[in-house]
Amino acid sequence: MTFNFSITKSTTQGRLGTLTTPHGEVKTPAFIFCATKAAMKAVTPVQMRSANTQIILSNTYHLMLQPGGETVKKLGGLQKMTGWNGPMLTDSGGFQIFSLGHGSVASEVKGRRSTNRPKTLLRINEQGAKFKSYIDGRTYFLTPEESIRVQRNLGADLIVVLDECTPFHVDQTYTQQSMRMSHRWALRSLNEWQTHDDGSQKLYGIIQGGVYPQLRQESCEFVNDHNFYGIAVGGSLGADKSQMHDVVSFTMEMVRKDRPVHLLGIGGISDIFSGVKQGIDTFDCVHPTRLARHGGALVKPANNQGTREHINLRNSMYREDDQPIENDCGCETCAWASKGYIHHLLKAQEMIAYTLVSIHNIYFMNQLMHAIREALANDTLDSCQKEWCT
Amino acid sequence: MTFNFSITKSTTQGRLGTLTTPHGEVKTPAFIFCATKAAMKAVTPVQMRSANTQIILSNTYHLMLQPGGETVKKLGGLQKMTGWNGPMLTDSGGFQIFSLGHGSVASEVKGRRSTNRPKTLLRINEQGAKFKSYIDGRTYFLTPEESIRVQRNLGADLIVVLDECTPFHVDQTYTQQSMRMSHRWALRSLNEWQTHDDGSQKLYGIIQGGVYPQLRQESCEFVNDHNFYGIAVGGSLGADKSQMHDVVSFTMEMVRKDRPVHLLGIGGISDIFSGVKQGIDTFDCVHPTRLARHGGALVKPANNQGTREHINLRNSMYREDDQPIENDCGCETCAWASKGYIHHLLKAQEMIAYTLVSIHNIYFMNQLMHAIREALANDTLDSCQKEWCT
Predict the structure, then answer these.
(1) Which of A13, B12, B172, B320 lies in the 20 to 30 Å Cα band around B236?
(2) Yes or no, beta carbons of A42 and B352 under 8 Å apart
């Protein structure tokens, strides 16, 4: 197989497509699960496939520190090494450097609370970003070229340009300067990729510009006009869901329609419906699997009195509940495990608690995306949304 | 299915049999894996079955504290609740009470180092043992009758009488007094079991007597003469492998031959061969799965220059090793995962590291027992031992 992106149906409610990679096809809209350090937390590749997963991503930042791109290459590249052997994406490393570096960007980009993480970002300039490893304190200098070189060694099908991840709180002037440097970095990434292109990887550009419409427009034009295979919508999307909806909305109006479009770091169920309606093809977020590790199981409104998107299995109300998380779920976990048993496993801190809930949440997200694709085919997205959204 | 134990072949090298339970058959000699808190650590029941597991055990002590026998019963009993649905054994709770209680018995019974655990055993007398929960400090009083009642609620096929687990360092007088109290406890356990016997569970007696031949003889006669379905060899087996071999040897000479015999807590590969030759039918030990969680993978001597029974995958020599743990292994892990990848996962503390190594070690033990059964059938146990033992 070689790369291809075909749009099979496009409506005002969203679009259906197939993203083909050398490691397999992805039916879009699709959800990309986070195998941060080249492993899904608590879930094996066999279990990922059983849960209908199409595509996963790993993080260049973590892998360049350990085990290192060269080692991954010697172990056969990400797909072979992880046993996943399906479509994969790697990010550029930028998000984690600036997130861990500023100590708070991951939260601030999404307009949330700050954290107390140690700052590991030492210096950022036109050339790139200097930072300390959180593992051994060693100093690294990540440039756009180096990010592409590391991603080449990692060997994912889809790779991403290095960008500066601008925090939410900065003003328009800073955002503009940062965006323009990210554009120059994107050109250097593109140049490094093209120089060594052997047809095994495709490069995504990233649209920056924060919450400012004219900056988003400038960034859209930049990404539209250069030879990127796909387009990622990145940067700060605002302080709340409403602003995120607006930012994605006016951004998507300007994005060219022939490339696959990825929305970075968004995975709430209502946010996915909102993104699909604006033409987004792929989503990623740690939410479904991180939630699982805290005992949160995703449920359809009908299975949760229509209140929240998940139930908390740590709650003592489930202690003697002999029913599965969802009676109408086809996942490996709901086939046999009761909420009461999982409640016990969570209290006992047994590792398979995280495995069982993760399997459910992964299957749930894949079923959600499957339902969305069916609904787009049948022009029934609104009723689909009522079934899946509170 | 109902209970049955049939010996299909018996030689001086060991014996072959089939232990039938309402939840399935166990071909003996067999290894019983420890699902301490009603879960195999890091391994799902689906993965347990794929690794050819025949039978698992859970610990009454942990489960009576959390979630409690009544809750397990409401969740359908251990086999249904855990999704295992195969043969199961529960111990009586005695080992953990005295082990955690004395702060060191688990080690001392096996003649090893002492630990610094808090002492939770408050009092022991003829009636039973009073102890504090390590979870919430609540006080419990475990009697032989209560142990059987809890085990009835848990619902395993094979259950065990409550005994006092005598430490290694005590003298013959203490050992004799303790043994005789354990015999009285065994009669009370037997009486409680018989009063409510509905055919769904069978009771094992335990041979005590420490390292003292005349005490072992007295205990063998006691267990032989009473209506126990199976016989467990327990108590202190001495300070080292040689003494353990002697104790098991003179004990087994006196054990009646028509009942299944279990050797408690022994799981080293050479110890298993030694036990099989003395007529032991089943073994249990946390070793294979605990070792896995520390990165230790069991390997045949041919795959390890004939040195130790395992390799330590944390060792940096495996960093770029693209070969599986064992090239001739048929387990799910060796089908795709390299030592280098597992080394990375262990360093990154990814949960699936423990899953992958546990799956290998479980499959390894099941293959070992399969090879032993084949060798007993073909009268080739000595050459089998050369293949599996360093």
Answers:
(1) B12
(2) yes
